[in-house]
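Write out the 3D structure for:
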Amino acid sequence: MYRSSVRNLFIISLVFNSLMLPRAVSAQQGTLQLLTLPAGSMAYGVGVTLAATITRNSPYTTIIAGYGGAQVIVPMLESGRAELALINANDAAQGFRGELPFHKANNNLRLISNAYANTVGIIVARDSDIKSISDIRGKRVTGAFSSHKSCEQLAEAQMANMGLTRDDVKIVPVSSPVASVEALSEGRADVALCATPGMPAILEAGTKIGIRYISLDPSAAAVQNMKAVFTAGAIALEPKGAIPDLTEDTYFLEYDYYLVGSTHLADTAVKQILTVLWDQHDNLVKENREFSSWSPARMALPGSTIPYHPAAIEFFKSKGITLP
């Protein structure tokens, strides 16, 4: 996933150095802080690639920092303590409107670009007797995520798709998606939910214990139950062999990630960031396959869950894309 460990160590070291600086000084020096989920998550890997690419191709040194979840990240954007973040479309909507787990509306939140399409699946140990979603009832399932409430909502949406409630399984509390996979690897859980294919923790689990993916239900009724919990979600089919350890065609929960900022972010910075994303797309894909779905054609889509930054609207207009 990471093509340059030296560059990544440089970016990560900047995180710790930047935390020692006041935000006002950092901004004056042309530094942008990009917030994501913690190291080991798919969002963090995408963020490392994006931060390095912006740093190479713009006047802004971009640093990355991992946090527990959107309930921490969004208030930092709202107050101007950070400039950029990668969060999912559902979290963006809830954060903007002030719906739980957020305690107030974050009216300064603005969309810069529709980002990559993310998927989460259900994984079990390769030698598990669980062969389909009908076998999960009564099993130990990672369904409570203390520091990542959006993952907890995704897990609940996965269970809703399976026709299950929390009372139908034995909930194993974990902190994050990485901890969810670790619980499976260590034998503390039978089923790991909110597991993004390709994340380092899953690759490690595949080597350690061997894993299998369990397909979600693509029927209209099951999808409706899922969307009642996670409105930004959809069902996506991944063909056999498309990802490591995928031995048969499998349905996953799919949803969009957003690159977001706030009204505090200067127009010039927004235009520089979008120019990098637009012009460097092929190079970004070479470094991280998740950028395949973060194409210029998908950077601006109708039906976004939060308002676009005014400078983003102007940028896309210059490219012949008019947003409603």
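Residues 13 and 242 are 34 Å apart (CA to CA).
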